[in-house]
Amino acid sequence: MSIRSILRIVSRKSFLRALTGCTTILFLGLILLGGCKKRQVTVPTPLMNADPQYWVRVLLLNDTNNCTLQIPSAFNIENADPNQQTQALSTHIYQHDEQTRIQLSNGAFFLAGKTFECRQIIISTGSPHIFSLNGNDYRGKLKLIIGPDGNSFDAINLIPLEPYLAGVIGAEMPDYWEPEALKAQVIAARTYCLYIKRRFGPKRNWDVSKTAAHQVYLGVSSESAAIWNAVHQTEGMVLTCKQNNGKEDIFPAYYSSTCGGHTESSRNVFGDSFEPLIGVPCPFCKNVAKPKFFFWPMVQIEKDYITNKLFQRYEKISLLGEIKDIAVAGQSNYEDFSRLTRIEVLGSSGKKENLRAEDFRLTIDPTGNKIKSACFVLIDLGDSWAFTSGRGWGHGVGMCQCGAQGMARKSKTAKQILSHYYPGSKISTIDY
User: Measuring CA to CA, which residue among 131, 110, 130 is closest to residue 121?
Assistant: First the structure.
C-alpha cells in the first residue's frame, strides 16, 4: 500500500477544522451514552464516507462470549461473512439508547431479541456514529467475528484513521502537555499505526489492538479540544526514511514513556533495523518523568517463579533442565547507566540459550509495571533474583515521550523533536 494512496476525502479539511474549536464543539450538542454516564459534549465522527479499506481495525475484545452494547439511536446490523454472501442480511434495530447484551446462541449471534445466523456482522449507527461497548464509547462501527470453535467472538472497532488517533493520543500522553509534544506524538502514532496495519493487518482480522502491545486506544474518553487540535494541525503527516530498496517509506515509529537518558537501537529490542531507530542521547526526560519512574525501586522475584514463566513461554529453555544461572550476555553502555540487550540462561544440562533482554523482562512481568525497563542490574540472592538500579519505563526505542515534553518546554517544535528521536527521518504528508 503506497503512502500516497490513503483516504482521498475532498471535504476532510473543512470538517476537521470544525472539530478543533471549543465553541463549535459546544454548539453541536449533548449526547447521552451508557447507563449512568454524565451527558458529555461530542461531535459527529469525521471521514465516515472514506473507503473502509483505509480505516483502522482495532481489536477491542478477544475471545469473549458476551458483551454489552448501547447506542443512542437506531442502528443497522449487516452480514459481513464472506462465506455467506448469498445470505442477505440487513436488519434495522429501532431501540433507542437501551443497553443490549450480545451473546452466542448455538454458534450464532443473539442481540436485541434477535438471532443472526452468520459468523461475522457489522453494527453501524447514524450520526454521530458512536457506540458504547461494555460501557466504553467508541467512534465508527463495530464488527463481531465468531471464532473457529463457535464458542467465542472478537469485537473489532472499524474507524477512520484520524478519529482513531484522537482516541489514542490522550491515552498515550496527557492532553495538558505542550502542544508541540502532542503534535510529535500524533505524527509518531499515525506512522506507527500505518506501518503495523500494512505489515500485519493482511494476515489477520484486525490491524492493531487497543492495548500497549501496540498503542493504547481508549476511544471517545481520550478526546479533548487540545487532542483534536494536535490531530488536525498534523493532518496526514507521517515519518519516512530511506529503505533498503532506496525508496522513502514509513517505518515503525516506536515510542515509550521514559528512556532514562538514552534511547535504544531497535535492532537490540525488536530485531528490525531502520536508520532513524539507532538510539540517541536524551537529557530531556529526567525533569519531566516522575522520580519513581525515572529511578524505579528494587524488584525481588523468586527463582521458581522466573523458571516457570520462562518454561511456559520458551520450549527451548524448558529443554535445558533446571535453570542454574541467568547472566547478562549483552548490554548498551551509556555515560552513567547500561541497558541490557541480551540474557543468557544456563541449564543443568550444561547447555545455554540466549534471548533478548526486553523479552526476558516482559516474560517475567508482562505488565511492565514492576520491571519497568531493561535498564537494571541483575543480582543473585540465592532463592530469588533482584533487579536493582532500575531506570526508565518502557522499551526505550524511538521517541521518549517525557523527553518530547522536555524538549517542547524548551520551545522545540514537533519537527525538531521528531528529528532528534528519529535521526535521518523526514516528515511526509499523505495525499488524502
Answer: 110
Q: Is the peptide bond before 128 cis (omega within 30 degrees of 0)?
A: yes
> How buried is residue 225: exposed, middle or buried, by Cβ count under 10 Å (0-12/13-18/19+)?
middle
Q: Which of 65, 74, 209, 258 is nearest to 146 (CA)?
A: 65
pLDDT, tens digit, 9 for 90 and up, residues 200-222: 999 999 999 999 999 999 999 99
* Averaged pLDDT for residues 257-272: 97
Residue-by-residue DSSP string for 339-381: EEEEEEEEETTS-EEEEEHHHHHHHH-TT-SSS-SS--EEEE-
Task: Supply the pLDDT for residue 33.
Answer: 38
CA distances (Å), origin 387, targets 55, 291, 310, 378: 42, 17, 16, 5
Sequence-ordered list of residues with C-beta below 8 angstroms from that of 34, at least 6 positions apart, any chain: 70, 99, 132, 135, 137
3-state secondary structure of 190: helix
Task: Count the neighbouring beta carbons within 10 Å of the beta carbon of residue 194.
Answer: 24
Of 388, 355, 361, the closest CA to residue 374 belongs to: 361
Q: How much is the pTM?
A: 0.89
Tell me the C-alpha distance between 181 and 199, whole Å: 27
**At CA 146, angle to CA 141 and CA 151, rounded to 5?**
135
Cβ atoms of residues 258 and 266 within 8 Å: no
* 196 dihedral zone (left: phi>0; alpha: psi -120 to 50; beta): alpha
Q: How far apart are CA 358 and CA 396, in angstroms?
A: 10
pLDDT (0 to 100) of residue 4:
37
Backbone angles phi, psi at 430, to 5 degrees: -70, 135
pLDDT score of 9: 33
Distances from the Cα of 32 to the Cα of 19, 70, 97, 198, 228, angstroms: 19, 10, 8, 36, 21
